[in-house]
Design a protein that fits this description.
Layout: H1 2-63, E1 72-74, E2 77-87, E3 92-102, E4 108-118
Antiparallel strand pairs: 1-2, 2-3, 3-4
């Protein structure tokens, strides 16, 4: 009779210990999945901000002005855009674009990119001379 009681108690203790190990394993796996997902989201946000800054620089090179230099919403996240145009020399202009956003860790992250282009040459004013035929 004593042996049966000890065996039942041992099986109960074994079951509780197994359940505890299973819960511990689930907690570790869940934390790992959350960390991987957070890093994936941060990487996706960084890529989106880089592509946005690059496209604004290319737009400036092609058109000479930043038409879209305002906040952008990509996949539900707001990316704040700041652009600075500078004259480097008589023939070269510089554009610096900074894109910032709130990361999943509630910290502000930034990507800064700059581009250069030759300044458009203004034609000399016409003197009113007669054209040659």
């Amino acid at each position: 009779m004593n042996k049966k009681l000890n065996q039942k108690g041992f099986m109960y203790l074994e079951s509780v210990f197994t359940l505890f190990l299973l819960l511990l394993l689930l907690g570790v796996v869940n934390q790992t999945i959350e960390t991987i997902d957070q890093k994936r989201m941060d990487s996706q946000d960084n890529t989106a901000s880089y592509l946005l800054a690059r496209s604004l620089i290319e737009q400036w090179k092609a058109k000479g002005s930043l038409v879209d230099a305002e906040d952008h919403f990509i996949h539900g996240k707001c990316y704040a855009v700041r652009a600075r145009l500078m004259v480097v020399s008589e023939m070269v202009e510089k554009c610096e674009v900074e894109v910032s956003w709130q990361s999943s860790g509630s910290e502000e992250k930034k990507v800064t990119m700059e581009g250069y282009r030759f300044a458009p040459v203004n034609p000399p004013p016409s003197t009113g001379a007669a054209s040659v035929e």
